[in-house]
Design goal:
Blueprint lengths: L7 H19 L6 E2 L1 E3 L2 E3 L9 E5 L5 E6 L1 E2 L9 E5 L2 E6 L7 E7 L4 E2 L2 H6 L10 H12 L11 E12 L2 E10 L2 E8 L1 E4 L3 E11 L9 E2 L4 E3 L2 E12 L1
Antiparallel strand pairs: 1-13, 2-3, 4-8, 4-18, 5-7, 5-18, 6-17, 7-10, 8-9, 9-11, 11-12, 12-13, 14-15, 15-18, 16-17
Helix pairs in contact: 1-3
Length: 240
């Protein structure tokens, strides 16, 4: 029996896998805070640095990408997944890296699951075709109230707390607001400075077990999500 079919059970399986990976990009190390609310609008508890030159993120050329790998004795019955999303927001570049900062707004409606283009870009491990019906069903369930709940929490907010190290290769500490919670996030980045824009990229892996999370699993663990996830970030921001 093929697990990857376009029926409701398959959609729920793949939606759970996709949701698990989307959560993992926004979670890091221990600690969790509650979102503050001002006049019904969710806000971060602290403000990011806004010194120096302002750059506005170009959502059409910016992307957050997750590579989710199948695992287990029955891994051949599942699919590896590519999940992509866009971002808007601001980046501020000051003379001092410590006075620089950024704010990313990631609309949940921008999330896409297993688009042919990104799958082809990621090579042989993502070569298996995923039907339109399977992709649509997975995304529908991923956005639902039992998972990301996009109706109640329509966006993810990422704000820098500190930038340390070299200007071209800073270590980023940030806060992430996801699904009514605030979590810390740390990751390395590379920054290219041009006359009219900056390009920020990052590639890193996250272990679910290191975060105290249990990888999604069915059939007694025979088909499951690999503990390690790959995260690729590319932000293009234009000088104002």
């Amino acid at each position: 029996m093929q697990i990857c079919t376009a029926n409701a059970s398959c959609h729920k399986v793949h939606a759970a896998i996709a949701c698990c990976s989307m959560l993992l990009i926004m979670l890091s190390f221990s600690g969790c805070g509650q979102v503050q609310t001002v006049s019904g609008v969710q806000t971060m508890p602290t403000a990011f640095h806004t010194g120096g030159q302002r750059y506005v993120i170009d959502s059409a050329r910016s992307e957050i990408r997750l590579l989710v790998y199948r695992d287990g004795p029955l891994a051949r019955l599942g699919h590896n997944h590519v999940i992509t999303g866009s971002a808007t927001g601001d980046v501020y570049v000051a003379d001092s890296l410590a006075d620089s900062g950024f704010r990313l707004l990631i609309p949940l409606q921008s999330f896409a699951v297993d688009l042919p283009g990104p799958r082809a870009e990621e090579g042989a491990e993502f070569a298996a075709a995923v039907s339109e019906a399977a992709r649509a069903g997975t995304r529908h369930n991923m956005m639902g109230g039992g998972m990301l709940d996009a109706a109640q929490f329509p966006q993810i907010i990422v704000e820098s707390v500190s930038l340390q190290g070299a200007r071209e290769a800073p270590r980023v500490s940030a806060l992430v607001m996801l699904h009514g919670k605030i979590q810390p996030l740390q990751f390395p980045a590379q920054v290219q400075y041009d006359a009219e824009r900056i390009v920020i990229t990052s590639r890193f892996s996250v272990l679910q077990s290191a975060l105290g999370l249990r990888p999604f699993s069915i059939l007694g663990g025979a088909l499951r999500v690999r503990d390690e996830l790959e995260i690729h970030i590319r932000i293009v921001a234009l000088k104002q």
